[in-house]
Specification:
Elements lengths: L4 E12 L2 E12 L3 E6 L5 H8 L7 E6 L2 E2 L4 H7 E4 L11 H11 L4 H15 L14 H12 L6 E5 L7 H16 L3 E6 L10 E6 L2 E6 L1 H8 L4 H12 L1
Parallel strand pairs: 3-8, 3-9, 6-7, 7-8
Antiparallel strand pairs: 1-2, 1-4, 4-5, 9-10
Protein name: ABC-2 type transport system ATP-binding protein
Keywords: ATP-binding, Membrane, Nucleotide-binding, Transmembrane, Transmembrane helix, Transport
GO molecular function: ATP binding; ATP hydrolysis activity
């Protein structure tokens, strides 16, 4: 049955022995939404994402991604999403063209489609003079842009981005978010984790995790109004103090 939600999560938990990394989180992400999954390092964001992309089994609770159950249909989940990790998922010892061809093959694209996508991607990024260069030679910001584009090769319904702008300057971060906007405008759902609270302002809605739990969830505008502050960073600080 067709639903308005791209992601639906109910009481999802992940435990490692006696330690609970993710504690009974519940939320939904609408189709075509830019959803920010925020929190400090160690809050449980990446652990939660790993469950949603089908590479880590939940200890408890349920979740569906693109209509597929993350516990019982993890392979179908993986085929329906794009994913970009903090490590950018590219191979440094391959050229840009070779990376595109390699991942296009993994995603099951035909040789003809890979050629078409390669030409389009290189043209969109303006990398004609660097297409045959090894990825390791690219500046960090360009690696991120290429990795994001590669994650979209198979035109997934949902893209998961794990700390995609870590370690780059503010101008490059803004350029990367412009790429995210363009993709969201095409109807793609964007699920992005970050510990940069100012990036929350770019999202349609955000959740804020503290010590494995979602302690706030709404649009940035409504959260700032709720906490009577002017920035998402102040929301986070106020929330953290309340938890303490």
């Amino acid at each position: 049955m067709e639903t308005k939600n791209a992601i639906l999560v109910k009481n999802l938990s992940k435990r490692f022995g006696d330690f609970t990394a993710v504690n009974a989180i519940t939320f939904e992400v609408k189709k075509g939404e830019i959803f920010g999954f925020l929190g400090a390092n160690g809050a449980g964001k990446t652990t939660a994402m790993k469950m949603l992309i089908g590479i880590s089994k939940p200890s408890e609770g349920t979740a569906t991604v693109a209509g597929f159950d993350v516990k019982t249909q993890s392979e179908a989940v993986k085929k329906s999403i794009g994913y970009m990790s903090q490590r950018f998922t590219l191979y440094d010892d391959l050229t840009i063209k070779e990376n595109i061809a390699f991942f296009g093959g993994i995603y099951g694209l035909s040789n003809e489609k890979i050629k078409e996508k390669t030409a389009l991607l290189i043209d969109e990024l303006g990398l004609h003079d660097k297409a045959s260069n090894l990825v390791r030679s690219l500046p960090l910001g360009w690696k991120q842009k290429v990795a994001f584009s590669v994650a979209l090769l198979h035109e997934p319904k949902i893209v998961f981005l794990d700390e995609p702008t870590g370690g780059v300057d503010p101008i490059t971060r803004r350029q990367f978010w412009e790429m995210i906007y363009r993709e969201a405008n095409k109807g793609t759902t964007i699920f992005v984790t970050t510990h940069y609270m100012d990036e929350a302002e770019y999202c349609d809605r955000v959740s804020i995790m503290v010590e494995g739990k979602i302690e706030a969830l709404d649009s940035p505008k409504k959260l700032k109004k709720q906490f009577k502050v002017d920035s998402m960073n102040e929301v986070f600080l106020k929330l953290a103090r309340n938890i303490e």
